[in-house]
Amino acid sequence: MKILLAVDSSTASDTAVREVAARPWPQGSTVLVLSVAESAHISDAPELLETLQNAARQVVDHTAAVLRHSGLLVETMVLTGDPRGVIIDLAATVDVDLIAIGSHEVRGLTGVLLGSVAKAVTRFAPCSVEIVRAQISPMARRILLATDGSESSEIAARSVAARPWPVGTEIRVLSVVELSIPILTGPYFETKAMEELRGKAMKHAEEAVMSAEQILFDAGLQASGTEAVPSATPKELILQQANEWGADLIVVGSHGRRGLSRFLLGSVSEAVALYAACSVEIIRQTKVSNSAQEWVGDLSRFDPDPCATP
After folding, report:
1. Of 65-69, 87-91, 264-268, which gets the smallest average pLDDT?
2. What distance in Å separates the CA atoms of residue 221 and residue 164, rounded to the nearest whole number?
3. Distance (Å, rounded) from C-alpha 180 to C-alpha 6?
4. Taken in order 240, 211, 207, 130, is the CA torsion positive or negative?
5. CA–CA separation, 20 vs 132, rounded Å?
6. Residue 295, Cβ neighbours under 10 Å: how many?
7. Plot region of 225 (φ>0 → left; ψ -120 to 50 → alpha; else → beta)
8. What are residue 6's DSSP bridge partners?
9. Which residue has the higher pLDDT, 271 or 18?
10. Average pLDDT rounded to a whole number, residues 198-204
11. At what angle do helices 116-124 and 83-93 cross, to 10 degrees?
12. For strand 98-102 and strand 73-80, is the pairing parallel, antiparallel, or unpaired?
C-alpha cells in the first residue's frame, strides 16, 4: 500500500503524522512524505522561496524520522506550487492508494469546516483520502463503516477488511434506509404503497449490512452492533451515529462522478468528511489516469460549500 502523507508546520499536520505512525498498515506499505512550498505571489522573491523550501524540507525530514522510528518505509519529497494542485497531481502521477492529510479546519459562518487544501484534496483526489482529525489510540479503536449496498460500499468494506487492525477493534456497519420515490409521481401516496416502499428500503438496508458484515467476517474481523437505521437523511444519520457511538474513524465509499472537467464526490461522503468530529476515510473505486492539472483550474471556483450543513 502506498500512502501519500501531506505535511506542513501546522498542528493539524502533526496530528496526521502521529496517526499514520501509530496505525498498523499492510506489510510492505510505503509512506511518501510530501511538503509543498507555496509559491503564490513570491515569484519575484527567490530568497523567500528558498526559505520556504528549506522550511518544507525540515518538516519532511522530521516527519520521516518519526515514521521510520515506527518501522515504516519512507520516501520524501519537497515540491513548489499550489499545495492543492501539487498534492492531487502527485497522487495521480505516482499511483498512490491513500492520501492522508490533517483537517486544517477553519471556523466560518456555518461552523467548523475544512481548510481549502484539505477540502480540495477531499473532492478532487484520484484515490482514497483520509481526513485526519483528533489522534486516536494505537490500541483498539471504533470504526463506523457506512454502506448503501452499492459497489462503492463493497469496495470500502473490502478495504477495511484488508487492513491489520489492533486487537479489540470494534467495527459497526451502518446502512441508512432511503425511500426511492419516482420523480414523476404525484406528491401523495396511498398508505399501502408507502408501506411497500418502506419495506423494500428496509430490506435493501439490511442486505447491505449483511453483505458488509460477511466481508469483514471472512477477513477475521468482528463487526459489532450492526444495524439498519430507519429512514432519515444519510449524512445526518452517519454523523449522529458516529458521535453517539464515539467512533474514531468513519469509512465511506465514494460515489464519484466525472463532470466536464471535475471529479466530484457524492454529496453524502463529502458532507461526512466536511463535518465529522472524527477522522474520515473516503474510499474511491478507481484512480483517475488523467492529469490532475485539468482539475486545478476549477479549484478557485469551489469555495462555496455544495453540501448543506447537517
Report:
1. 264-268
2. 10
3. 40
4. positive
5. 9
6. 27
7. left
8. 34, 101
9. 18
10. 77
11. 30
12. unpaired
What's the pLDDT tens digit per position in 210-246? 999 999 999 999 887 777 777 667 888 899 999 999 9
* Distance in angstroms (rounded) separating the CA atoms of residues 104 and 108: 13
Cell output for 151: 459497489
Q: Which CA distances in Å does 154 have to 19, 210, 229, 255, 303?
A: 25, 11, 18, 12, 31
Q: Which amino acid is present at 4?
A: L
| Strands 73-80 and 30-37, bridge-based pairing | parallel
Listed in sequence order, the residues at least 6 apart from 135 whose beta carbon sits closer than 8 Å to its beta carbon are 15, 18, 19, 22
In the structure grid, which three cell numbers stand for residue 111, read together?
Answer: 461552523
Write down the pLDDT at residue 111. Answer: 40
**Grid coordinates given for 238:** 452517519
Sign of CA dihedral 247, 248, 252, 256: positive
Do residues 20 and 100 touch, judged by C-beta distance below 8 A?
A: yes
Confidence check: pLDDT of 153 > 80: yes
d(CA 192, CA 45): 72
Q: Is the pLDDT of residue 264 over 50?
A: no
